[in-house]
Amino acid sequence: MSDKTNNAPAVADALNALLADSFALYLKTKNYHWHVQGPRFRELHLLFDEQAAQIFATTDLIAERVRKNGAATLRSIGDVGRRASIRDDDSAGADAEAMIRALAGDNKTLLGQLKEVKAAAEADGDIATSGLVDGWVDETQQRIWFLEATLGY
Ligand SMILES: [Fe+2]
Description:
The chain is an all-alpha fold. Helices cover 80% and strands 0% of the residues. One of its GO terms (molecular function) is DNA binding.
């Protein structure tokens, strides 16, 4: 059996985990876009919306990389819930700083998922997946930078 056959499920598994966390982070960021309150409302409402749109834009590309590798991808919100490691925040009245801290941490979790996809893709010689991940890493690092700069560190 070739290395490609051995490693392909690892790439698909890593992509599906990344996809689940991308949907979880998308909805969590939108949740904060909708519910943030306080004197910085407009700034944060807009920042969270920009970040949510950027995350959502990656989801179709991630899912289609899985299909191009011949594997199945997510089928439902239930699939997202079973696979995601980023936790929901169903609390009411979270303050703005807590939202920013939560999103910075969750984007770091996503960065870890991206590095797992990169490693699996490199091991498989899957240069298309590996190349796509580079841009998503840059976007995720930018989101983390903006969030942490907003906190002042
Ligand atoms: Fe909106």
